[in-house]
Design a protein that fits this description.
The complex is a heterodimer of chains A (545) and B (330). The N terminus and C terminus of chain A are likely disordered. In chain A, strands 4, 6, 10, 11, 12, 21 and 22 form a seven-stranded antiparallel sheet that branches. In chain A, strands 13, 14, 15, 18, 19 and 20 form a six-stranded antiparallel sheet that branches. A five-stranded antiparallel sheet of chain A has the order 1-24-23-3-2, with helices on one face. Chain A has ten helices and 24 strands. By secondary structure, chain A is an alpha+beta fold. The longest helix of chain A is centred in the first third of the chain and has 30 residues. In chain A, 37% of the residues are buried. Chain B is globular, with a radius of gyration of 22 Å. The longest helix of chain B is centred in the middle third of the chain and has 37 residues. A two-stranded antiparallel ribbon of chain B has the order 2-4. Chain B has 330 residues and is mainly α. Chain B contains eight helices and four strands; from the N terminus they run E-H-E-E-E-H-H-H-H-H-H-H. The N terminus of chain B is likely disordered. In chain B, helix 2 runs antiparallel to helix 3. Classes of the chains: A alpha+beta (545), B mainly alpha (330). The interface between A and B is large, with 102 and 84 residues. The complex binds protoporphyrin IX containing FE. Protoporphyrin IX containing FE sits at the interface of chains A and B. Chain B: It is found in: Membrane.
Chain lengths: 545, 330
């Protein structure tokens, strides 16, 4: 613990300050000795310091490499691009740094160290708070600040006045002196801060073990029921009961995004608004909520947030006989947010004949760039166009597969479509049928999150800040005043001060106290005609505090 | 789907704000020049005893003849290189500060919103805080000798801001349209500015510490390095600003996670920005521990402080440009 060098012998602090890091390992001690040595080393400040460094260092790969907690898709992309390296990275859990065993080892050690450090400290402090200020040392001359002066007032008066000058101090009389102490809250704040960190860790752990988080995509007009299979991706905790999710339902009535239309910032998103209707349970009343970026929906203890949005172009597909075999809006994923050029796949398994599949690109605001290529120049749908590539054959739908990917191994390309505007129809080659681009809808991606630890975690964090402020700004310090009658009948006053922090500031304050005490005694003796003391006023300038 | 024009930007205010920032940079450059001359050629002057200045043995100011004081300290009294130029430099800096304040206000008026919504505005605001902290330290701790050391990073950052980060005033991206901007972002900016001053004081400390060590070997140290105040004093000032900034940073991170909870559905998601603000927090906690650990007080602890500021800067620049994350305002 505290291996700080303070000039004084602070009994309480020394007693609980075995400095293990300084000493060598145990020599010829039994297992108990080793155990004690390990424990002391673990709970030493130096170890805490090293563990703190490791905590910071270990977090760095978590920011450089894509992480599964942040985006599973980014990890998948990275793995696809660096297949060999990824095997090694994965072996060291570098795509899951913050839930990896080695990172857990660091913070668990840190927190064991913390508990081992703070619990004894809390006990010592609990005793110190109830104890009287320590007895006045015999020789005050060894203290960092000592002032001496003489006065005509009696020792009794001096000690009485000292009490009133030492405002905010706990004062105790010991014979010819008083001993005063203040700043107990620093230690209390330190204990509170470190305990709050422990509580925060526990709250975070509980939240992740019992909560869940899931993503879903809703096209305008679609609904969602909160059950495990309805999610596109779901991350339950280890002990989450996935059969008993809150039974709410959500319907996306409409979605609107707006973008800045001109100037430097053209294409920057300005707002997203999703209008929802929802029911807390199948029996309850339907309610409305406007979901915006900083305005989530809270339903039955679950928070629902707007994560993103995109376009779902609508298509009608007819088979060779002209029968309508497909009529749907298909969500496309955007490549980047400044243009919303989006990719998607249309799968038509039931055509009556061979399966049809299309790989498409959606351009919300299509225009030709300087090289004559068709690109999107704006995220809003000002001039929506689609280009498609058609495939015929077997899509391999027996296996589970992503809705955003088409397996073309068993298929044969039918060629590329012309650029299609809303309403255009492409007659497929080989009499395979036709596809019409009938319009587009927007979709919103939502995230639901149940984390029972949100409020406890916030409480612990707030308590940590409070504790921190106390431990950083309260200055524990002690003052002693001794008054003895001299041979000439005047009283010798000796005032000593000892601060545990910030020697300079404390000395300035101790001197303030001395001057106040001297000033008060002097002005009293001025009122008293029997003494002949110098009536000069004490100066109080000279400190820039 | 709706579209709007690029916000009702007030052009007069926008151009006033752009002029002010140039004026501010020129003013700071002038102040830096004056501070540097003071540091190199001023006369070594004793500083008054005070909040952070040691009370030298038997030298308590305001002590009257009746009171005999003895102070045990192994630290010499605080001295710094001073001249009238320094006082002028301080005035010039204050003028630049006023320009900076006016720049931020006019920019806020131009865009019709809180004036910290993108990288450029963050940098400018953080520098304003750093200069404010310098002025405060000069007034309260007589720490004018930090002037040159603080103004160098300030000018560097402002230069980078104007040259590479500048964007015209305009509206905010949706994620930043929240009352959390004034709370979270202000806390982080103010803490960042204070960390900058602390880091500058820390580097000054390292220079002074080296100079002292060389002097102890009998070498003569010339130039600014030889005329700095005692390392202990610099260390105390540096520590002082951490005491202010660290809780504020802690609060800023907490406020940020409350905001993230509201905006993105989770209060902590290990997004690169979050990872790096956590790293900075841990490093500064390590700094505070190091100061309380035997054998770490002094240059080692100060290096931790400097590394802490580097992580803050890294978070600021690199994370916005190098990593993709939810926190992209670049
Ligand atoms: C999660 C990790 C930790 C954090 C963020 C943390 C943070 C802090 C902070 C901010 C302070 C205030 C420093 C000051 O008073 O100037 C402090 C003080 C202290 N911490 Fe920790 N701490 C952590 C872990 C530990 C551990 C593991 C130990 C025990 C080995 C420990 C022991 C202490 C002690 C003894 C002090 C008082 C130092 C003094 O008297 O100045 N801390 N801690």
């Amino acid at each position: 613990m505290s291996t700080r060098t303070t000039e004084n012998a602070d009994g309480a602090e020394q007693a609980r300050t075995p400095d293990p890091a300084a000493g060598p390992g145990p020599k010829g001690l039994g297992p108990a000795g080793w155990g004690r040595w390990v424990w002391r080393t673990l709970t030493s400040m130096r170890t805490a310091l090293i563990l703190l460094f490791m905590l910071a260092l270990g977090a760095i790969p978590g920011s450089i490499l894509p992480q599964n907690v942040v985006s599973v898709d980014e990890v998948a992309t990275y793995v696809r691009e660096n297949p060999e390296l990824s095997v090694w990275l994965d072996r060291f859990h570098l795509f899951d740094v913050f839930s990896s065993p080695w990172y857990a080892a660091i913070y668990l050690l840190l927190f064991v160290s913390l508990a081992g450090c703070v619990i004894p400290r809390a006990l010592v402090h609990a005793r110190a708070v109830r104890a009287r200020p320590v007895a006045t040392p015999r020789n005050l001359g060894r203290m960092p600040y000592v002032a001496r002066f003489g006065t005509g007032a009696s020792p009794e008066t001096v000690l009485e006045r000292s009490r009133s000058v030492l405002k905010g101090y706990r004062v105790e009389r010991y014979g010819d002196s008083v001993s005063a102490e203040t700043g107990y809250l620093r230690e209390a704040g330190n204990v509170l801060f470190h305990f709050s960190l422990l509580a925060l860790l526990l709250a975070l752990a509980a939240g992740s073990f019992f909560g869940y988080r899931g993503n879903m995509l809703l096209v305008e007009g679609d609904g969602f029921a909160n059950t495990l299979p309805s999610y596109d991706a779901i991350y339950p905790g280890h002990w989450t009961d996935t059969d008993a999710f809150e039974p709410f339902t959500i319907h996306l009535d409409s979605f609107e995004a707006s973008f800045i239309d001109d100037g430097d910032l053209r294409g920057q998103a300005e707002s997203y608004v999703a209008e929802l209707s929802y029911k807390e349970s199948p029996e309850s009343e339907e309610e409305q909520h406007t979901l915006e970026v900083n305005h989530p929906l809270s339903v039955d203890g679950v928070q629902v947030y707007l994560l993103g949005h995109g376009y779902a172009p609508q298509f009608e597909v007819r088979n060779a006989d002209g029968d309508l075999v497909f009529d749907q809006a298909v969500p496309f994923l955007h490549r980047e947010t400044m243009t919303y050029t989006s990719d998607g796949v249309v799968k038509v398994p039931d055509t009556g004949g061979e399966e049809l599949g299309f790989v498409g690109v959606f351009l919300p605001t299509a225009a030709e760039d300087s090289e004559g290529e068709l690109v999107s120049t704006f995220p809003g749908a000002e001039n929506p166009m689609v280009t498609l590539e058609a495939y015929q054959g077997d899509m391999g739908m027996v296996d589970p597969q992503s809705v955003y990917q088409l397996r073309t191994e068993g298929m044969e390309s039918l060629g590329e479509s012309p650029v299609m505007a809303v309403g255009d129809t492409w007659e497929l080659p080989d009499e395979a049928g036709s596809i019409t681009f009938t319009g587009y809808k927007e979709y919103a991606t939502l995230q639901s999150n149940r984390d029972g630890a949100r409020l406890p975690a916030l409480g612990a964090a707030t308590a940590a800040v409070a504790g921190l402020l106390l431990t950083l700004f309260v200055r524990p310090r002690r003052v002693w005043v001794r008054a003895t009658r001299g041979e000439d009948g005047t009283t010798r006053v000796e005032l000593a001060g000892l601060g545990k922090t910030e020697v300079a500031g404390d000395n300035a304050e101790f001197h303030e106290i001395t001057k106040r005490l001297a000033g008060r005694l002097r002005s009293e003796s001025d009122d008293n005609p029997h003494t002949t003391s110098d009536p000069r006023e004490s100066t109080t300038r000279g400190s820039d505090r | 789907m709706t579209y709007t024009l690029a916000g009702p930007v007030d052009e007069t205010m926008a151009s006033a704000s752009d002029t002010l920032i140039i004026a501010m940079i020129v003013t700071y450059a002038a102040a830096l020049f004056l501070f540097a001359i003071e540091a190199a050629y001023g006369r070594r002057t004793r500083l008054r005893a005070g909040r952070l200045m040691p009370v030298g043995a038997g030298s308590v100011e305001g002590a009257d003849d009746d009171i005999e004081v003895s102070v045990r300290t192994d630290e010499g009294e605080a001295q710094a290189s001073q001249s009238v130029l320094g006082r002028i430099a301080l005035g010039v800096t204050a003028l630049g500060f006023v320009f900076g304040l006016a720049q931020i206000i006019t920019r806020g008026l131009a865009a019709g919103r809180w004036p910290w919504g993108n990288m450029f505005e963050f940098v400018v605001a953080m520098c304003l805080v750093a200069v404010g902290a310098l002025l405060y330290a000069s007034w309260r701790y007589q720490a004018r000798f930090l002037g040159a050391f603080v103004l160098v990073p300030v000018l560097l950052l402002l230069g980078i801001g104007v040259r590479w980060l500048y964007v015209d005033p305009g509206p905010l991206i949706p994620a930043l349209q929240s009352y959390w901007v004034p709370i979270h972002v202000s806390a982080v900016i103010i803490a960042g500015g204070a960390f900058m001053v602390s880091g500058a004081a820390g580097i000054t400390y390292l220079v002074a510490h080296r100079a002292e060590a060389r002097r102890a070997l009998g070498e003569k140290v010339v130039g600014i390095a030889g005329r700095l105040p005692s390392p202990e004093l610099l260390d105390r000032i540096s520590h002082r600003f951490i005491l202010f900034a660290f809780p504020l940073w802690t609060f800023g991170v907490i406020a940020g996670s409350v905001w993230a909870d509201e905006a993105w559905g989770r209060f902590w998601g290990w997004d690169p920005k979050e990872v790096w603000s956590f790293i900075s927090w841990v490093i500064y906690a390590a700094y505070l521990h190091a100061r309380a650990t035997g054998g770490w007080r002094g240059p080692k602890a100060t290096w931790i402080n400097v590394i802490g500021f580097l992580t803050v800067m890294f978070n600021f620049f690199a994370v916005n440009y190098m990593f993709s994350g939810l926190h992209s305002y670049a």
